[in-house]
Amino acid sequence: MAELQMLLEEEIPSGKRALIESYQNLTRVADYCENNYIQATDKRKALEETKAYTTQSLASVAYQINALANNVLQLLDIQASQLRRMESSINHISQTVDIHKEKVARREIGILTTNKNTSRTHKIIAPANMERPVRYIRKPIDYTVLDDVGHGVKHGNNQPARTGTLSRTNPPTQKPPSPPMSGRGTLGRNTPYKTLEPVKPPTVPNDYMTSPARLGSQHSPGRTASLNQRPRTHR
Predict the structure, then answer these.
(1) Residue 168 belongs to a domain
(2) At 45, is the secondary structure helix, strand, or coil?
(3) Residue 141 per-residue DSSP state
(4) Could you identify which of 6, 56, 60, 133 might form a hypothetical disulfide with 201, taking C-beta atoms 3.0 to 4.6 angstroms apart as the criterion?
(5) Compositionally biased, Polar residues: which spans (predicted)?
(6) Angle between helix 43-111 and helix 12-39 axes, rounded to 10 deg
(7) pLDDT tens-digit profile of 83-119?
């Protein structure tokens, strides 16, 4: 229950907040890359910087989504385990009720029965005519009496030939390989889900400040048209 509560109250909400903050941060990074490419004199350098920001942004978002997905899957596993335990408890109660019903039914059937009188007699009775004991005569053991029995072929050295039966193989002496150990999850416990290496989200330089007018125009419908009407500089 403590692990489930930690996932519901700490891990999953923090992952959602990280995704929201990453969305806002990536919006600022996109504005910075756009302005930097338009105002830069060296377009190739600005393009390489934009590529670096794009790669770091994708890695950061992939890590955050993977961490949140792992937490949600662990939450579902815990809840599924609780449902299985509850189902087992319900089945146990159902079996107990069925056993009680069977006992009551047998008791009611026993009321309708009658006792049977049985005569007590000896179970083992000696025979009337005793058999005469036979004198024991010792005979030598003949080890070749069964040589002609079966599918073997008798050779001159009195050893049966090998047939087409499978021979016994020696048991393996090597120890089977052990299964790989699963990695550790985000909560410091063993988990079957793979987690990625943490990647920091990209940040714009400290000297870059987004103007309030530009922030207000991000959500206006004419923003796309204004961007398309800007003059493009050719190298």
Answers:
(1) no
(2) helix
(3) -
(4) 60
(5) 156-170, 217-235
(6) 160
(7) 999 999 999 999 999 999 999 999 999 888 877 777 7
Cα 178 to Cα 105, 122, 132, 185, 191, distances in angstroms: 53, 64, 69, 21, 18
Domain-embedded: residue 128: no
Instruction: Record the pTM.
Output: 0.46
pLDDT band of 19, cuts 50, 70, 90: confident
Q: How many CB atoms lie within 10 A of CB 160?
A: 12
The number of folded domains in the chain is: 1
- One-letter identity of residue 181: M
pLDDT digits (tens, 9 = 90+) for 24-65: 888 888 888 888 888 888 888 888 888 888 888 888 888 889
Other residues' Cβ atoms within 10 Å of the Cβ of residue 204 = 17
| CA distances, 148 to each of 135, 142, 151, 162, 164 (Å) | 31, 13, 8, 14, 18
Query: Residue 164's pLDDT is what?
Result: 46
Answer yes or no: is pLDDT of 235 > 50: no
Task: Please give the Cα distance from 225 to 223 (Å, whole number).
Answer: 5
Burial 88-98 (b: 16+ CB within 10 A, else e): eeeeeeeeeee
Domain range for residue 68?
1-111+183-220
Is 31 domain-assigned? Answer: yes
